[in-house]
Amino acid sequence: THNFNILSPQQQDVAKMLLENGQSHLFKDWPAPGIDDDQKKSFFDQIIRLDSSYPGGLEAYIKNAKRLLADSKAGVNPFDGFTPSVPTGETLTFGEENFIKFEDRGVQEARKAAFVLVAGGLGERLGYSGIKVALPAETTTGTCFLQNYIESILALQEASSQGESQTRIPLAIMTSDDTHGRTLELLELNSYFGMQPTQVTLLKQEKVACLDDNDARLALDPQSKYKIQTKPHGHGDVHSLLYSSGLLKAWYDAGLKWVLFFQDTNGLLFKAIPASLGVSATKQYHVNSLAVPRKAKEAIGGITRLTHSDGRSMVINVEYNQLDPLLRASGYPDGDVNSETGYSPFPGNINQLILELGPYIEELTKTGGAIQEFVNPKYKDASKTSFKSSTRLECMMQDYPKTLSPSARVGFTVMETWLAYAPVKNNAEDAAKVPKGNPYHSATSGEMAIYRANSIILKKAGVQIPDPELKVFNGQEVEVWPRITWKPKWGLTYSQIKSKVSGNSSISQNSTLAIKGQKVFIENLSLDGALIIDAVDDAEVNVSGSVKNNGWSIENVDYKDTSEPEVLRIRGFKLNKVEQQEAKYTEPGKFSFKP
Ligand code: UGB
Protein backbone atom coordinates (compact mmCIF):
# COMPACT_ATOMS: atom_id res chain seq x y z
CA THR A 1 0.00 0.00 0.00
CA HIS A 2 2.90 2.35 0.63
CA ASN A 3 4.89 3.53 -2.30
CA PHE A 4 8.45 3.97 -1.10
CA ASN A 5 10.04 4.09 -4.51
CA ILE A 6 11.11 7.70 -4.10
CA LEU A 7 13.28 6.65 -1.15
CA SER A 8 16.95 5.80 -1.06
CA PRO A 9 17.86 2.17 -0.29
CA GLN A 10 18.77 3.15 3.29
CA GLN A 11 15.41 4.87 3.73
CA GLN A 12 13.61 1.85 2.28
CA ASP A 13 15.33 -0.35 4.84
CA VAL A 14 14.16 1.74 7.78
CA ALA A 15 10.66 1.96 6.30
CA LYS A 16 10.57 -1.83 6.17
CA MET A 17 11.89 -2.07 9.72
CA LEU A 18 9.15 0.31 10.93
CA LEU A 19 6.43 -1.72 9.24
CA GLU A 20 7.79 -4.92 10.72
CA ASN A 21 7.78 -3.35 14.17
CA GLY A 22 4.17 -2.28 14.32
CA GLN A 23 4.57 1.28 13.06
CA SER A 24 2.33 1.26 9.98
CA HIS A 25 0.17 4.00 11.58
CA LEU A 26 2.94 6.45 10.74
CA PHE A 27 2.09 6.19 7.04
CA LYS A 28 -1.67 5.90 7.42
CA ASP A 29 -2.44 9.44 6.34
CA TRP A 30 0.20 9.77 3.67
CA PRO A 31 -1.08 11.02 0.32
CA ALA A 32 -0.33 9.35 -2.97
CA PRO A 33 3.21 9.38 -4.39
CA GLY A 34 4.04 12.69 -5.99
CA ILE A 35 2.42 14.66 -3.19
CA ASP A 36 4.53 16.04 -0.30
CA ASP A 37 7.57 14.10 -1.51
CA ASP A 38 9.98 16.57 0.12
CA GLN A 39 8.29 16.27 3.50
CA LYS A 40 8.31 12.51 3.19
CA LYS A 41 12.03 12.61 2.60
CA SER A 42 12.64 14.84 5.58
CA PHE A 43 10.52 12.47 7.66
CA PHE A 44 12.97 9.72 6.77
CA ASP A 45 15.93 11.97 7.51
CA GLN A 46 14.59 12.29 11.03
CA ILE A 47 13.97 8.55 11.29
CA ILE A 48 17.54 7.85 10.25
CA ARG A 49 18.82 10.32 12.84
CA LEU A 50 16.76 8.62 15.53
CA ASP A 51 18.02 5.26 14.30
CA SER A 52 21.71 6.13 14.36
CA SER A 53 21.75 7.97 17.69
CA TYR A 54 20.40 5.08 19.78
CA PRO A 55 22.59 2.08 20.65
CA GLY A 56 21.11 -0.76 18.58
CA GLY A 57 19.00 1.60 16.46
CA LEU A 58 15.32 2.46 16.44
CA GLU A 59 14.33 -1.20 16.26
CA ALA A 60 16.06 -1.80 19.61
CA TYR A 61 14.35 1.33 20.97
CA ILE A 62 10.90 0.05 20.00
CA LYS A 63 11.62 -3.41 21.44
CA ASN A 64 12.97 -1.98 24.69
CA ALA A 65 9.94 0.30 24.89
CA LYS A 66 7.50 -2.59 24.45
CA ARG A 67 9.21 -4.55 27.20
CA LEU A 68 9.42 -1.64 29.65
CA LEU A 69 5.83 -0.55 28.94
CA ALA A 70 4.57 -4.10 29.52
CA ASP A 71 6.50 -4.23 32.82
CA SER A 72 5.10 -0.86 33.83
CA LYS A 73 1.55 -1.92 33.01
CA ALA A 74 1.97 -5.16 34.99
CA GLY A 75 3.36 -3.13 37.89
CA VAL A 76 6.65 -5.06 37.87
CA ASN A 77 8.83 -3.83 40.69
CA PRO A 78 12.31 -3.03 39.31
CA PHE A 79 13.73 -3.87 42.73
CA ASP A 80 12.01 -7.25 42.98
CA GLY A 81 14.12 -9.64 45.02
CA PHE A 82 16.43 -6.87 46.25
CA THR A 83 16.71 -5.76 49.87
CA PRO A 84 18.01 -2.24 50.49
CA SER A 85 20.54 -1.51 53.21
CA VAL A 86 22.78 1.40 54.13
CA PRO A 87 26.18 1.03 52.43
CA THR A 88 29.52 2.07 53.89
CA GLY A 89 31.81 4.47 52.07
CA GLU A 90 34.51 7.00 52.73
CA THR A 91 33.35 9.95 54.84
CA LEU A 92 35.56 13.01 54.74
CA THR A 93 35.64 16.07 56.96
CA PHE A 94 37.10 19.22 55.48
CA GLY A 95 40.49 20.17 56.82
CA GLU A 96 41.22 16.91 58.65
CA GLU A 97 44.54 15.19 58.03
CA ASN A 98 42.87 12.51 55.94
CA PHE A 99 41.13 15.11 53.81
CA ILE A 100 44.36 16.96 53.13
CA LYS A 101 46.11 13.71 52.22
CA PHE A 102 43.38 12.85 49.72
CA GLU A 103 43.48 16.39 48.29
CA ASP A 104 47.23 16.14 47.68
CA ARG A 105 46.78 12.80 45.96
CA GLY A 106 43.87 14.13 43.90
CA VAL A 107 45.89 17.09 42.68
CA GLN A 108 48.64 14.73 41.51
CA GLU A 109 46.12 12.51 39.71
CA ALA A 110 44.38 15.42 38.01
CA ARG A 111 46.92 15.51 35.19
CA LYS A 112 45.47 12.12 34.16
CA ALA A 113 41.87 13.32 34.37
CA ALA A 114 39.23 14.35 31.87
CA PHE A 115 36.06 16.19 32.85
CA VAL A 116 32.56 15.72 31.47
CA LEU A 117 29.83 18.27 32.12
CA VAL A 118 26.27 17.15 31.40
CA ALA A 119 24.46 20.29 30.34
CA GLY A 120 21.71 19.16 28.00
CA GLY A 121 18.90 19.84 30.45
CA LEU A 122 16.77 22.95 30.21
CA GLY A 123 16.04 23.05 33.90
CA GLU A 124 12.25 23.11 33.78
CA ARG A 125 12.08 23.18 37.56
CA LEU A 126 14.10 26.40 37.66
CA GLY A 127 12.19 28.07 34.88
CA TYR A 128 15.10 30.33 33.93
CA SER A 129 14.96 31.49 30.34
CA GLY A 130 18.67 31.11 29.58
CA ILE A 131 20.93 28.07 29.70
CA LYS A 132 21.82 27.13 33.24
CA VAL A 133 25.61 27.17 32.82
CA ALA A 134 25.37 30.87 31.87
CA LEU A 135 23.69 31.76 35.16
CA PRO A 136 25.90 33.69 37.59
CA ALA A 137 26.93 31.37 40.41
CA GLU A 138 27.23 34.49 42.57
CA THR A 139 26.59 38.15 41.88
CA THR A 140 29.56 39.65 43.71
CA THR A 141 31.75 38.99 40.67
CA GLY A 142 29.01 37.81 38.28
CA THR A 143 30.98 34.69 37.43
CA CYS A 144 28.76 32.18 35.65
CA PHE A 145 28.82 28.45 36.35
CA LEU A 146 30.66 27.57 33.17
CA GLN A 147 33.39 30.11 33.89
CA ASN A 148 33.74 28.82 37.44
CA TYR A 149 33.99 25.24 36.19
CA ILE A 150 36.55 26.01 33.50
CA GLU A 151 38.69 28.17 35.79
CA SER A 152 38.60 25.41 38.39
CA ILE A 153 39.78 22.82 35.87
CA LEU A 154 42.54 25.20 34.75
CA ALA A 155 43.58 25.75 38.36
CA LEU A 156 43.74 22.01 38.86
CA GLN A 157 45.68 21.65 35.64
CA GLU A 158 48.24 24.16 36.81
CA ALA A 159 48.55 22.66 40.28
CA SER A 160 48.97 19.14 38.93
CA SER A 161 51.29 19.86 36.05
CA GLN A 162 54.03 21.30 38.29
CA GLY A 163 55.55 23.38 35.57
CA GLU A 164 55.06 20.92 32.71
CA SER A 165 53.17 23.20 30.42
CA GLN A 166 51.90 20.47 28.10
CA THR A 167 49.30 19.14 30.56
CA ARG A 168 45.88 20.07 29.25
CA ILE A 169 42.92 18.57 31.05
CA PRO A 170 40.19 17.89 28.49
CA LEU A 171 36.60 18.98 29.04
CA ALA A 172 33.65 17.45 27.22
CA ILE A 173 30.27 19.14 27.49
CA MET A 174 27.11 17.26 26.64
CA THR A 175 24.57 19.61 25.14
CA SER A 176 21.18 19.09 23.50
CA ASP A 177 19.19 20.95 20.88
CA ASP A 178 17.90 23.07 23.76
CA THR A 179 21.35 24.18 24.92
CA HIS A 180 23.92 23.54 22.18
CA GLY A 181 23.93 26.85 20.30
CA ARG A 182 23.87 29.00 23.42
CA THR A 183 26.62 26.96 25.09
CA LEU A 184 28.90 27.31 22.08
CA GLU A 185 28.14 31.01 21.88
CA LEU A 186 28.94 31.53 25.57
CA LEU A 187 32.30 29.81 25.10
CA GLU A 188 33.17 31.71 21.94
CA LEU A 189 32.16 35.11 23.29
CA ASN A 190 34.41 34.55 26.30
CA SER A 191 37.44 32.97 24.59
CA TYR A 192 36.58 29.65 26.24
CA PHE A 193 37.20 31.30 29.64
CA GLY A 194 40.91 30.72 29.19
CA MET A 195 40.90 27.14 27.93
CA GLN A 196 42.35 26.22 24.57
CA PRO A 197 39.37 25.71 22.25
CA THR A 198 40.87 22.32 21.34
CA GLN A 199 40.61 21.28 24.99
CA VAL A 200 36.82 21.50 24.84
CA THR A 201 34.56 19.07 22.97
CA LEU A 202 30.82 19.60 22.69
CA LEU A 203 28.77 16.44 22.26
CA LYS A 204 25.14 16.98 21.41
CA GLN A 205 22.63 14.43 22.65
CA GLU A 206 19.64 13.69 20.43
CA LYS A 207 16.14 13.41 21.75
CA VAL A 208 14.30 10.11 21.47
CA ALA A 209 10.96 9.25 19.89
CA CYS A 210 7.83 9.64 21.96
CA LEU A 211 5.48 6.71 22.39
CA ASP A 212 1.69 6.85 22.12
CA ASP A 213 0.63 3.58 23.68
CA ASN A 214 1.61 0.31 25.29
CA ASP A 215 2.44 -1.15 21.85
CA ALA A 216 5.23 1.42 21.62
CA ARG A 217 3.71 3.09 18.59
CA LEU A 218 5.81 6.13 17.82
CA ALA A 219 3.98 9.41 18.38
CA LEU A 220 3.59 11.88 15.55
CA ASP A 221 4.17 15.54 16.24
CA PRO A 222 0.78 17.17 16.81
CA GLN A 223 1.73 19.79 14.19
CA SER A 224 2.88 17.52 11.39
CA LYS A 225 2.26 14.04 10.09
CA TYR A 226 5.79 14.02 8.71
CA LYS A 227 7.52 14.44 12.03
CA ILE A 228 7.98 12.17 15.03
CA GLN A 229 7.47 13.86 18.36
CA THR A 230 10.63 13.69 20.49
CA LYS A 231 11.67 14.32 24.10
CA PRO A 232 14.93 14.20 26.08
CA HIS A 233 16.26 10.76 26.91
CA GLY A 234 18.08 11.92 30.06
CA HIS A 235 21.65 12.43 31.24
CA GLY A 236 22.44 8.73 30.78
CA ASP A 237 23.09 9.49 27.10
CA VAL A 238 26.48 10.79 28.07
CA HIS A 239 27.97 7.30 28.13
CA SER A 240 26.99 6.26 24.62
CA LEU A 241 28.03 9.67 23.26
CA LEU A 242 31.48 9.52 24.86
CA TYR A 243 31.88 6.03 23.50
CA SER A 244 30.57 6.50 19.96
CA SER A 245 32.40 9.81 19.47
CA GLY A 246 35.73 8.02 19.99
CA LEU A 247 36.60 10.48 22.76
CA LEU A 248 37.13 7.83 25.40
CA LYS A 249 39.57 5.98 23.22
CA ALA A 250 41.45 9.18 22.40
CA TRP A 251 41.73 9.94 26.14
CA TYR A 252 42.90 6.42 26.85
CA ASP A 253 45.51 6.58 24.12
CA ALA A 254 46.71 9.90 25.56
CA GLY A 255 47.41 8.12 28.86
CA LEU A 256 44.48 9.46 30.86
CA LYS A 257 43.09 7.44 33.73
CA TRP A 258 40.05 9.19 35.21
CA VAL A 259 36.79 10.58 33.88
CA LEU A 260 34.91 12.97 36.17
CA PHE A 261 31.25 13.68 35.47
CA PHE A 262 29.45 16.68 36.87
CA GLN A 263 26.22 18.68 36.57
CA ASP A 264 25.33 22.15 35.41
CA THR A 265 24.75 24.30 38.51
CA ASN A 266 26.76 23.35 41.57
CA GLY A 267 28.97 26.27 42.55
CA LEU A 268 30.68 24.31 45.33
CA LEU A 269 31.57 21.20 43.43
CA PHE A 270 35.22 21.85 42.73
CA LYS A 271 35.95 22.29 46.41
CA ALA A 272 35.20 18.58 46.72
CA ILE A 273 36.88 17.36 43.54
CA PRO A 274 40.54 17.09 44.56
CA ALA A 275 39.83 15.04 47.69
CA SER A 276 37.35 12.73 45.99
CA LEU A 277 39.72 12.08 43.11
CA GLY A 278 42.30 11.25 45.76
CA VAL A 279 39.87 8.74 47.24
CA SER A 280 39.37 7.11 43.81
CA ALA A 281 43.11 6.80 43.28
CA THR A 282 43.92 5.59 46.79
CA LYS A 283 41.11 3.05 46.94
CA GLN A 284 41.39 2.15 43.26
CA TYR A 285 37.69 2.63 42.76
CA HIS A 286 36.33 1.86 39.30
CA VAL A 287 33.33 3.97 40.23
CA ASN A 288 33.25 6.63 42.92
CA SER A 289 30.04 8.62 43.47
CA LEU A 290 30.13 11.80 45.46
CA ALA A 291 27.49 12.09 48.11
CA VAL A 292 26.34 14.38 50.91
CA PRO A 293 24.16 13.71 53.94
CA ARG A 294 20.62 13.55 52.62
CA LYS A 295 17.46 14.94 54.16
CA ALA A 296 14.52 12.55 53.77
CA LYS A 297 12.42 13.38 50.69
CA GLU A 298 15.11 15.68 49.30
CA ALA A 299 15.09 15.53 45.48
CA ILE A 300 18.42 13.76 45.26
CA GLY A 301 18.82 10.02 44.93
CA GLY A 302 19.88 7.81 47.83
CA ILE A 303 23.01 5.69 47.59
CA THR A 304 21.90 2.25 48.60
CA ARG A 305 23.25 -1.26 48.84
CA LEU A 306 20.85 -3.61 47.08
CA THR A 307 21.26 -7.27 47.93
CA HIS A 308 19.39 -9.82 45.85
CA SER A 309 17.97 -13.02 47.29
CA ASP A 310 20.29 -14.89 44.90
CA GLY A 311 23.30 -13.31 46.64
CA ARG A 312 24.12 -10.55 44.12
CA SER A 313 24.79 -7.17 45.63
CA MET A 314 25.51 -3.68 44.33
CA VAL A 315 25.90 -0.13 45.56
CA ILE A 316 23.72 2.08 43.41
CA ASN A 317 21.71 5.28 43.38
CA VAL A 318 18.01 4.78 44.02
CA GLU A 319 16.26 7.80 42.55
CA TYR A 320 14.36 10.05 44.93
CA ASN A 321 10.92 9.05 43.64
CA GLN A 322 11.71 5.33 44.04
CA LEU A 323 13.39 5.30 47.42
CA ASP A 324 10.25 5.73 49.49
CA PRO A 325 8.24 2.92 47.81
CA LEU A 326 11.28 0.63 47.87
CA LEU A 327 11.78 1.16 51.60
CA ARG A 328 8.09 0.69 52.39
CA ALA A 329 8.08 -2.57 50.44
CA SER A 330 11.11 -3.89 52.26
CA GLY A 331 10.38 -3.67 55.93
CA TYR A 332 10.71 0.07 56.56
CA PRO A 333 7.02 0.95 57.04
CA ASP A 334 7.74 4.68 57.36
CA GLY A 335 9.59 4.84 54.05
CA ASP A 336 11.96 7.69 53.33
CA VAL A 337 12.35 9.35 56.75
CA ASN A 338 15.18 10.89 58.75
CA SER A 339 16.89 8.80 61.40
CA GLU A 340 17.79 10.13 64.85
CA THR A 341 20.70 12.00 63.22
CA GLY A 342 18.19 14.24 61.48
CA TYR A 343 19.21 12.84 58.10
CA SER A 344 18.16 9.94 55.91
CA PRO A 345 20.45 6.97 56.62
CA PHE A 346 21.07 6.80 52.86
CA PRO A 347 23.73 9.21 51.60
CA GLY A 348 22.46 11.64 48.94
CA ASN A 349 23.76 11.23 45.41
CA ILE A 350 25.01 14.51 43.95
CA ASN A 351 25.64 12.88 40.59
CA GLN A 352 29.30 13.59 40.49
CA LEU A 353 30.89 10.36 39.31
CA ILE A 354 34.55 9.50 38.99
CA LEU A 355 35.17 6.52 36.72
CA GLU A 356 38.43 4.81 36.04
CA LEU A 357 38.86 5.06 32.30
CA GLY A 358 40.29 1.59 31.54
CA PRO A 359 37.51 -0.49 33.11
CA TYR A 360 34.98 2.07 31.82
CA ILE A 361 36.00 1.58 28.21
CA GLU A 362 36.02 -2.17 28.69
CA GLU A 363 32.46 -2.10 29.94
CA LEU A 364 31.21 0.23 27.21
CA THR A 365 32.80 -1.97 24.56
CA LYS A 366 30.38 -4.66 25.76
CA THR A 367 27.31 -2.44 26.09
CA GLY A 368 27.94 0.15 23.38
CA GLY A 369 27.23 2.71 26.06
CA ALA A 370 23.63 1.63 26.54
CA ILE A 371 22.38 2.37 30.05
CA GLN A 372 19.49 0.64 31.77
CA GLU A 373 16.41 2.63 30.90
CA PHE A 374 13.03 3.22 32.48
CA VAL A 375 9.66 4.54 31.38
CA ASN A 376 7.30 6.68 33.37
CA PRO A 377 3.94 6.91 31.53
CA LYS A 378 1.14 8.98 32.98
CA TYR A 379 -1.83 6.64 32.56
CA LYS A 380 -5.35 7.91 31.94
CA ASP A 381 -6.87 5.46 34.43
CA ALA A 382 -6.26 2.36 36.49
CA SER A 383 -6.64 0.07 33.48
CA LYS A 384 -3.28 1.44 32.34
CA THR A 385 -4.29 1.02 28.72
CA SER A 386 -3.79 4.60 27.55
CA PHE A 387 -1.64 7.60 28.40
CA LYS A 388 -2.59 11.18 29.24
CA SER A 389 0.22 12.32 26.94
CA SER A 390 2.95 10.59 25.02
CA THR A 391 5.87 9.13 26.96
CA ARG A 392 9.41 8.02 26.13
CA LEU A 393 12.26 5.94 27.49
CA GLU A 394 14.68 7.68 29.83
CA CYS A 395 18.05 6.90 31.34
CA MET A 396 20.30 8.34 34.04
CA MET A 397 24.07 8.56 34.05
CA GLN A 398 24.38 7.23 37.60
CA ASP A 399 22.80 3.93 36.50
CA TYR A 400 26.04 3.03 34.75
CA PRO A 401 27.17 0.60 37.53
CA LYS A 402 23.99 -1.50 37.09
CA THR A 403 25.53 -3.65 34.36
CA LEU A 404 28.92 -4.05 36.06
CA SER A 405 30.09 -7.42 37.28
CA PRO A 406 30.00 -7.88 41.07
CA SER A 407 33.80 -7.79 41.16
CA ALA A 408 33.87 -4.12 40.07
CA ARG A 409 35.09 -1.77 42.78
CA VAL A 410 32.17 0.59 43.29
CA GLY A 411 32.42 3.04 46.15
CA PHE A 412 31.31 6.44 47.25
CA THR A 413 32.64 9.44 49.15
CA VAL A 414 30.49 11.47 51.51
CA MET A 415 31.42 15.13 51.92
CA GLU A 416 29.88 17.85 54.03
CA THR A 417 27.03 19.58 52.23
CA TRP A 418 28.33 23.07 52.97
CA LEU A 419 31.52 22.19 51.10
CA ALA A 420 30.26 20.13 48.19
CA TYR A 421 26.70 20.70 47.13
CA ALA A 422 24.48 23.68 46.42
CA PRO A 423 22.72 23.24 43.07
CA VAL A 424 20.39 25.78 41.50
CA LYS A 425 17.36 23.77 40.44
CA ASN A 426 14.18 25.18 41.96
CA ASN A 427 12.29 28.37 41.14
CA ALA A 428 11.52 30.83 43.91
CA GLU A 429 7.93 29.73 44.41
CA ASP A 430 8.75 26.03 44.72
CA ALA A 431 11.82 26.68 46.86
CA ALA A 432 9.73 28.62 49.37
CA LYS A 433 7.54 25.52 49.75
CA VAL A 434 10.43 23.18 50.58
CA PRO A 435 9.84 21.64 54.06
CA LYS A 436 11.66 23.55 56.78
CA GLY A 437 15.18 22.28 57.31
CA ASN A 438 15.48 20.79 53.81
CA PRO A 439 17.72 22.57 51.32
CA TYR A 440 16.06 24.97 48.87
CA HIS A 441 18.28 24.22 45.86
CA SER A 442 17.44 27.68 44.51
CA ALA A 443 19.47 30.55 43.07
CA THR A 444 19.18 32.20 46.50
CA SER A 445 20.58 29.28 48.46
CA GLY A 446 23.11 28.47 45.72
CA GLU A 447 24.73 31.91 45.95
CA MET A 448 24.59 32.14 49.74
CA ALA A 449 26.18 28.69 49.96
CA ILE A 450 29.25 29.95 48.11
CA TYR A 451 29.75 32.77 50.62
CA ARG A 452 29.15 30.37 53.48
CA ALA A 453 31.68 27.83 52.21
CA ASN A 454 34.32 30.46 51.55
CA SER A 455 33.75 32.02 54.97
CA ILE A 456 33.95 28.66 56.75
CA ILE A 457 37.15 27.78 54.88
CA LEU A 458 38.83 31.10 55.74
CA LYS A 459 37.70 30.71 59.33
CA LYS A 460 39.39 27.32 59.47
CA ALA A 461 42.47 28.94 57.95
CA GLY A 462 42.56 31.37 60.87
CA VAL A 463 40.59 34.43 59.75
CA GLN A 464 38.11 35.81 62.29
CA ILE A 465 34.64 35.80 60.80
CA PRO A 466 31.44 36.31 62.82
CA ASP A 467 28.46 33.99 62.80
CA PRO A 468 26.03 34.53 59.92
CA GLU A 469 22.83 36.54 60.01
CA LEU A 470 19.56 34.91 59.03
CA LYS A 471 17.64 36.70 56.30
CA VAL A 472 14.65 35.93 54.12
CA PHE A 473 14.72 36.32 50.34
CA ASN A 474 11.89 35.12 48.10
CA GLY A 475 10.34 33.42 51.14
CA GLN A 476 13.48 31.42 51.92
CA GLU A 477 15.39 31.84 55.14
CA VAL A 478 19.13 31.63 54.50
CA GLU A 479 22.39 32.22 56.34
CA VAL A 480 24.11 35.38 55.15
CA TRP A 481 27.87 35.33 55.60
CA PRO A 482 30.32 37.97 54.40
CA ARG A 483 30.42 37.90 50.60
CA ILE A 484 33.84 36.34 50.12
CA THR A 485 34.89 35.09 46.70
CA TRP A 486 38.15 34.11 45.10
CA LYS A 487 39.35 32.79 41.77
CA PRO A 488 39.93 29.02 41.77
CA LYS A 489 43.61 29.59 40.98
CA TRP A 490 43.96 31.49 44.28
CA GLY A 491 43.02 28.40 46.22
CA LEU A 492 41.42 25.16 45.13
CA THR A 493 42.68 22.99 47.98
CA TYR A 494 42.90 23.66 51.69
CA SER A 495 46.70 23.57 51.61
CA GLN A 496 46.80 26.17 48.84
CA ILE A 497 44.42 28.41 50.74
CA LYS A 498 46.28 28.04 54.02
CA SER A 499 49.51 29.01 52.28
CA LYS A 500 47.89 32.34 51.32
CA VAL A 501 46.53 33.25 54.75
CA SER A 502 48.66 34.14 57.75
CA GLY A 503 48.79 36.53 60.71
CA ASN A 504 45.72 37.96 62.33
CA SER A 505 42.91 38.91 59.99
CA SER A 506 39.23 39.62 60.46
CA ILE A 507 36.28 40.18 58.12
CA SER A 508 33.05 41.71 59.40
CA GLN A 509 29.61 40.32 58.65
CA ASN A 510 28.67 43.09 56.20
CA SER A 511 31.89 42.86 54.23
CA THR A 512 32.66 41.88 50.67
CA LEU A 513 36.03 40.49 49.67
CA ALA A 514 36.79 39.52 46.06
CA ILE A 515 40.22 38.10 45.31
CA LYS A 516 40.88 38.09 41.59
CA GLY A 517 44.53 37.15 41.59
CA GLN A 518 46.73 34.17 42.18
CA LYS A 519 49.51 35.33 44.47
CA VAL A 520 47.50 37.43 46.87
CA PHE A 521 48.59 36.87 50.48
CA ILE A 522 46.22 37.90 53.25
CA GLU A 523 48.40 38.78 56.21
CA ASN A 524 46.99 41.13 58.80
CA LEU A 525 43.83 42.46 57.25
CA SER A 526 40.96 43.98 59.11
CA LEU A 527 38.08 44.36 56.68
CA ASP A 528 34.83 46.16 57.36
CA GLY A 529 33.41 47.13 53.97
CA ALA A 530 34.20 46.05 50.42
CA LEU A 531 37.65 45.21 49.08
CA ILE A 532 38.41 44.05 45.55
CA ILE A 533 41.92 42.85 44.84
CA ASP A 534 42.64 42.38 41.18
CA ALA A 535 46.16 41.26 40.31
CA VAL A 536 47.80 39.62 37.29
CA ASP A 537 49.28 36.19 37.93
CA ASP A 538 52.84 37.42 38.30
CA ALA A 539 52.04 40.17 40.76
CA GLU A 540 52.67 39.07 44.33
CA VAL A 541 50.56 41.15 46.68
CA ASN A 542 50.78 41.14 50.48
CA VAL A 543 47.59 42.47 52.00
CA SER A 544 47.50 43.96 55.49
CA GLY A 545 46.05 46.91 57.36
CA SER A 546 42.55 48.11 57.98
CA VAL A 547 39.94 48.70 55.29
CA LYS A 548 36.75 50.42 56.35
CA ASN A 549 34.11 51.78 53.98
CA ASN A 550 30.34 51.65 53.44
CA GLY A 551 30.70 48.49 51.39
CA TRP A 552 28.03 46.67 49.38
CA SER A 553 24.65 46.20 50.94
CA ILE A 554 22.07 43.53 50.14
CA GLU A 555 18.65 44.68 48.98
CA ASN A 556 15.57 42.51 48.63
CA VAL A 557 14.14 41.94 45.17
CA ASP A 558 10.73 40.35 44.70
CA TYR A 559 10.74 37.54 42.14
CA LYS A 560 7.53 38.94 40.68
CA ASP A 561 9.08 42.38 40.10
CA THR A 562 9.56 42.37 36.33
CA SER A 563 11.42 45.69 36.42
CA GLU A 564 14.44 43.75 37.74
CA PRO A 565 16.54 41.45 35.57
CA GLU A 566 15.62 37.76 35.71
CA VAL A 567 19.00 36.70 37.20
CA LEU A 568 18.29 38.94 40.22
CA ARG A 569 14.62 38.13 40.55
CA ILE A 570 15.30 34.41 40.86
CA ARG A 571 17.65 35.01 43.81
CA GLY A 572 15.51 37.56 45.58
CA PHE A 573 18.27 40.07 46.30
CA LYS A 574 20.73 42.41 44.65
CA LEU A 575 23.96 43.96 45.78
CA ASN A 576 24.01 47.71 46.13
CA LYS A 577 27.62 48.74 45.52
CA VAL A 578 27.74 51.76 47.82
CA GLU A 579 31.47 52.04 48.37
CA GLN A 580 34.55 49.89 47.95
CA GLN A 581 38.30 49.94 47.92
CA GLU A 582 39.91 48.54 44.80
CA ALA A 583 43.49 47.39 44.56
CA LYS A 584 44.62 46.71 41.01
CA TYR A 585 47.99 45.29 39.95
CA THR A 586 48.55 45.03 36.24
CA GLU A 587 52.32 44.46 36.18
CA PRO A 588 54.44 41.62 37.54
CA GLY A 589 56.37 42.35 40.74
CA LYS A 590 56.15 42.34 44.53
CA PHE A 591 53.66 44.69 46.15
CA SER A 592 52.34 45.54 49.58
CA PHE A 593 48.76 46.61 49.94
CA LYS A 594 48.43 48.78 53.03
CA PRO A 595 45.42 51.08 52.94
N1 UGB B 1 20.78 16.68 31.72
C1 UGB B 1 21.26 16.42 30.45
O1 UGB B 1 22.41 16.73 30.14
N2 UGB B 1 20.42 15.84 29.56
C2 UGB B 1 19.15 15.47 29.88
O2 UGB B 1 18.45 14.92 29.01
C3 UGB B 1 18.68 15.74 31.19
C4 UGB B 1 19.52 16.34 32.09
P1 UGB B 1 18.53 17.63 36.62
P2 UGB B 1 17.66 15.24 38.02
O3 UGB B 1 22.36 15.98 42.07
O4 UGB B 1 20.66 17.18 42.45
C5 UGB B 1 19.81 14.27 39.17
O5 UGB B 1 17.25 17.68 35.91
O6 UGB B 1 17.83 14.38 36.81
C6 UGB B 1 21.71 17.27 32.71
C7 UGB B 1 20.06 12.87 39.71
O7 UGB B 1 19.32 11.97 38.89
O8 UGB B 1 19.08 18.87 37.23
O9 UGB B 1 16.31 15.54 38.53
C8 UGB B 1 21.25 18.59 33.25
O10 UGB B 1 21.64 19.64 32.40
C9 UGB B 1 19.65 12.77 41.18
O11 UGB B 1 19.94 11.48 41.67
O12 UGB B 1 18.51 16.57 37.83
O13 UGB B 1 18.45 14.58 39.25
C10 UGB B 1 21.92 18.61 34.63
O14 UGB B 1 23.25 19.08 34.52
C11 UGB B 1 20.38 13.81 42.01
O15 UGB B 1 21.69 13.43 42.11
C12 UGB B 1 21.96 17.14 35.02
O16 UGB B 1 21.78 16.40 33.82
C13 UGB B 1 20.23 15.19 41.39
O17 UGB B 1 20.54 15.20 39.97
C14 UGB B 1 20.92 16.76 36.06
O18 UGB B 1 19.61 17.06 35.60
C15 UGB B 1 21.15 16.17 42.04
Automatic annotation (TrEMBL):
Catalytic activity: a monosaccharide 1-phosphate + UTP + H(+) = a UDP-monosaccharide + diphosphate
InterPro entries: Nucleotide-diphossugar_trans (IPR029044), UDP-sugar_pyrophosphorylase (IPR039741), UDPGP_fam (IPR002618)
A UniProt-annotated Pfam family: UDPGP
UniProtKB keywords: Nucleotidyltransferase, Transferase
Coiled coil location: none
GO terms for biological process, alphabetical: UDP-N-acetylglucosamine biosynthetic process
Cofactor: Mg(2+); Mn(2+)
Any one Gene Ontology molecular-function term assigned to this protein's record: UTP-monosaccharide-1-phosphate uridylyltransferase activity
Enzyme class: transferase
EC number(s) on file: 2.7.7.64
Annotated family: Belongs to the USP family.
Protein name: UTP-monosaccharide-1-phosphate uridylyltransferase
Organism this protein belongs to: Lupinus angustifolius
